[in-house]
Amino acid sequence: MASLPATQVSAYRGRLAPSPTGYLHVGHARTFWTAWQRARDAGGALILRMEDLDPDRSRADYADAAIEDLRWMGIRWQEGPDNGGPCAPYEQSRRKPVYLAAWRTLLRGGHLYPCSCSRKDLESALAAPHESVSAGTHANPVQDSLDDEPIYPGTCRTQQDNIPQLVGLNVPEPEAPVGINWRFRVPDGELVWFKDANLGIQRFIAGRDFGDFVVWRRDGVPSYQLACVADDAAMGITEVVRGADLLKSTARQILLNRALGFENPRWFHCRLVVDHNGRRLAKRHDALNLRALRERGLTPMNILSAELPAEA
Question: Is the model's pLDDT at 2 over the cut of 60?
Fold first, then answer.
């Protein structure tokens, strides 16, 4: 299979962003293949970024396996943890200064408030949410209950009505666990919309479809939303290709980009791949991960075909 040209001939910059918390599966393969194709067709660059923020679930062997599986698929990139580049490091676990700078900007702008709610409220803040997709909008309905950060009831927001006063205080930076979560205050009732290059116009109402979301956890780790936005801006990403389960995350990230003064990239959300029961593929589908399929003798073209193999 052909790889990307060695010399970038356009300003296009796309990215692959696997999370090394398990082996890649068929859904990842098809989305990453689409990202590679779009970068190749645009004559641009593709960046591999390892989204290893989760210290409890991220593993080096999964990161190594992701790189090997992507290469086996015939996907090539110009920058990444394996070959370096001008935006290094390409592992999120090593990019905390970038996220702290974004956090400071949000705090100075009055967009954040401290939250002392329990860890249970924050279980989904670290990983990509993989939100549910309406069956009436997309061809591949998702029937199982997908993770999403629940709409925050505003418990701590109502106690922090004078957030700008925090800017002049000696607020501890969230580099280490300090027992405080930081939430982004969404503009309630605002329509957030964007034109997706694959799925068309998408509309979400802040405060109704999603609420104040976590940007930094009490255990000293930035959330997926903040890290994703800060990295895409720092790496000059011009188009984000990912699954349709992250459409609502795009609305959140548009608000973050505006607050941080970043330009929005273009968006291309791929329709989800579902198993034979109509459920979204996840890393729990061991029989459909690329490692297992390779061992069964499947080729990259088999994996990219319309029909999925049986799990048995």
Answer: no
Cβ atoms of 303 and 290 within 8 Å: the answer is yes
Higher pLDDT, 99 or 135: 99
Write the DSSP assignment of 75-123 as a string of letters: ---SBBTTTB-TT---BGGG-HHHHHHHHHHHHHTT-EEEE---GGGGT
Domains and CATH numbers, the chain: 95-225 (3.90.800.10)
Residue 80's DSSP bridge partners are 84
With a cut of 80, say whether residue 239 has pLDDT above it: yes
Instruction: Lay out the sheet containing 213-216: strands in order across.
Output: 112-115, 181-184, 213-216
CB 148, CB 129: distance < 8 Å:
yes
- The predicted-structure confidence for 22-53, as pLDDT tens digits, reads as follows 999 888 999 999 999 999 999 999 999 999 99
Q: Where are the beta strands (DSSP E) in 151-199?
A: 181-184, 191-196
Q: Which pLDDT score, from 0 to 100, does residue 141 have?
A: 30
Contact yes or no for 252/210 (Cβ under 8 A): yes
Helix (H) or strand (E) holding 216: strand 213-216
The b-or-e profile of 213-239 (16+ CB within 10 A means b, else e) is bbbbbbbebbbbbbbbbbbbbebebbb
